[in-house]
Design a protein that fits this description.
TIM Barrel; 366 residues; 10 strands; alpha/beta; beta-N-acetylhexosaminidase activity; signal
C-alpha cells in the first residue's frame, strides 16, 4: 500500500507544483458570459466541465440580471428564467472543479438596451434617472438624448431595498462570496433635471454607489467586483467615452474602498491601465473579448506586471478574464462550430478564448 501511495505522489506532485506556479503567475483565470437559459443549462454544465475545467479556469462570472426565478421579487423575473435547481447544477459542477462562481446583476447603469427598457425600470419606472427620455421605436447612436443605456437614480429612497433583496437572493442561490455589479458605461448620472441628483458631483455619486453596494455585500463577507471604465479619465488617456469616462466619474477611483475588484476591459489595444489601478491599491483583472492576438499580448503584460513589480504592487495584478457579450447558447454554437460567424472571421470570442488559454497553458510551469 505504501509503495502504491508513493507512486501516486510521485506522479501527482509535478501537477500540484504546476498548479501552484500557475496560481502564482495568474491567480485569476476567468471567463465571463451571459447566463444560459433553462433549456441550455445542461449543455453549459458540460462546457464548464469539459472546456473550462480542462483549461484551469478558476473564476466564472455569469451575467444573470433577471434571468432567475426570484422569490423576493417575482415581478422582476424574465418570462423564461433559471430555477433554483438550474443554478444548483452550475454551482455543483463549479465546486467539483475548483471554479469560483460569481453572479452579476447590472447596477446603476445598463438598465436598458437599444429600444428596450429592462425589468427594473419597467416595473419601477419611478427609479429612472431620466424619465423624460423616451425609448425610441428604432434605436440609433448618436441621438439627441445621448441615450445609450438608462440608469436608475442612486439617490431614490426606495431603489436599494429592491435591488439589495434580489442581490442577496441571487448570491444565496449561487452560494457565493462575491458579486459583480457591472457599473460600466454609465452615461446618465447626476442629471440636471433629476430632483435628487441635480447639481451633485458625479464622481461622488458614483463612488457613493460603489461604497453602498460594497458595504452591503460585506455584511455577509461577500466581495464586490465591477467593470473599471468609469474610473479612467477618457480625455487625458485618449480612451474615449466608452472605455473610459467623459462625465468626470473617473475621480471616484480615489473615493472607493480598496477591496473592490476591477475588471479592466480593452478590446482594441493592450492599454496599460492595469498599472494605474494597481497603483491606486486596487486588484485588477484584464479582460479581452474577440481579438486573439491582443489577448495574448494582454496575458504577457499581466504576467510581466506581476513579475516586474514591487512586492507591494505585485498582488494587485490579479489575472485574466475572457469576456463574452452574448448569451451562453450563441457562444456554444460558435465554439462548437454549429453556426458560423461570417462577419467575425477569426476575431470571435471563442477564437479569443482558445488563444488566451493556449497562451496561459504555455506559460513556464517551473
Amino acid at each position: 500500500m505504501r509503495i502504491l501511495l508513493a507512486i501516486a505522489c510521485f506522479f501527482c506532485l509535478p501537477l500540484l507544483y504546476a498548479q501552484e506556479n500557475l496560481d502564482s503567475l495568474l491567480p485569476v483565470r476567468g471567463f465571463c458570459i451571459g447566463a444560459p437559459k433553462p433549456q441550455d443549462v445542461d449543455a453549459f454544465v458540460k462546457f464548464i466541465k469539459e472546456e473550462l475545467a480542462s483549461r484551469k479556469v478558476n473564476t466564472l462570472i455569469l451575467r444573470v440580471d433577471y434571468n432567475y426565478q426570484y422569490q423576493s421579487h417575482p415581478e422582476l423575473r424574465d418570462s423564461v428564467a433559471l430555477s433554483k435547481a438550474d443554478v444548483e447544477k452550475m454551482v455543483k459542477v463549479c465546486n467539483e472543479n475548483g471554479i469560483q462562481l460569481i453572479p452579476q446583476i447590472n447596477l446603476l447603469g445598463h438598465q436598458s438596451w437599444a429600444n428596450k427598457t429592462d425589468k427594473l425600470l419597467t416595473v419601477y419606472p419611478q427609479f429612472d434617472e431620466t424619465p423624460w427620455v423616451q425609448m425610441p421605436a428604432r434605436y440609433e447612436w448618436p441621438n439627441a438624448d445621448k441615450l445609450y443605456c438608462k440608469s436608475y437614480c442612486p439617490l431614490h429612497p426606495d431603489v436599494h431595498k429592491v435591488v439589495f433583496e434580489v442581490v442577496d437572493e441571487l448570491c444565496d442561490a449561487f452560494k457565493t462570496n462575491a458579486f459583480h455589479a457591472g457599473m460600466d458605461e454609465v452615461f446618465y448620472l447626476g442629471e440636471d433635471k433629476c430632483p435628487r441628483c441635480s447639481g451633485r458631483d458625479k464622481a461622488e455619486l458614483f463612488a457613493n454607489e460603489v461604497r453602498l453596494i460594497r458595504d452591503h455585500l460585506a455584511q455577509k463577507n461577500r466581495r464586490l467586483w465591477i467593470w473599471g471604465d468609469r474610473l479612467i479619465d477618457g480625455k487625458t488617456t485618449g480612451l474615449g467615452e466608452w472605455e473610459a469616462s467623459y462625465n468626470n466619474t473617473y475621480r471616484a477611483i480615489d473615493m472607493i474602498p480598496k477591496d473592490v475588484v476591477i475588471c479592466d476591459w480593452h478590446y482594441e489595444r493592450a492599454d496599460k491601465t492595469p498599472v494605474y489601478f494597481a497603483m491606486k491599491g486596487l486588484d485588477v483583472v484584464t479582460c479581452p473579448w474577440r481579438k486573439p492576438a491582443l489577448a495574448i499580448i494582454q496575458t504577457d503584460d499581466m504576467v510581466n506586471f506581476r513579475q516586474q513589480s514591487s512586492k507591494e504592487m505585485q498582488p494587485h495584478f490579479a489575472g485574466m478574464m475572457q469576456t463574452v457579450w452574448s448569451d451562453a447558447r450563441s457562444f456554444l454554437d460558435g465554439f462548437y462550430g454549429n453556426k458560423k460567424d461570417n462577419k467575425g472571421g477569426d476575431s470571435t470570442p471563442w477564437d479569443c478564448f482558445r488563444a488566451m488559454y493556449s497562451k496561459i497553458d504555455s506559460l513556464p510551469q517551473q
